[in-house]
Description:
Blueprint: E1 8-14, H1 22-33, E2 38-42, H2 62-73, E3 76-80, H3 90-97, E4 109-114, H4 122-134, E5 138-139, E6 145-146, H5 163-183
Helix pairs in contact: 1-5
Amino acid sequence: MLVASDVTRILLISGSTRDGSTNTAALRTVHALAPDSVETRCYTGLLELPAFVPGADPAAYPQVVDLRNDLAWADAVLISTPEYAGTLPGSLKNLLDWTVGTADLHEKPTAWLTVAAPGRGDGATATLSSVLGYVGADVVTAACVRHPVLSADIDSDGLVTGQAFRDGALTALDALARHTHVAR
């Protein structure tokens, strides 16, 4: 029987705001397949976050308070994001900007799951790596993986059907959870 200290809580953040997103489907699949030793939560507030204002009090914005509560709940974070114009989507960068100076991600085990085809998405992952380094996140490189997903790979429930993706994503989730458990 698992006790609370054996369960690793991982916040899943999609950097996409698009309906039918392969990034969101990938994380939804990770959520559906997570073993009992891992509790996941899908962050759903990306569209509602206000624009970051340097010096603003995060507590003045309920959406930012919700984000910070989700980050405080999590032992680790797994991000899947598309690439727009060679870098992170502005909405995800905005989310990350709200964590600068708050230590919400400082030393928190964090990884990313890239679903873009080879040769695509590298600008987003490079920027994500840079920003996560800047905020002091504990980037778990063993859990930062690429498993391409096409729209055709997503079923009517919004889950990725390919077994290779599922196996690879669960291996990455396991690597993140094991690292997090050891880091505790």
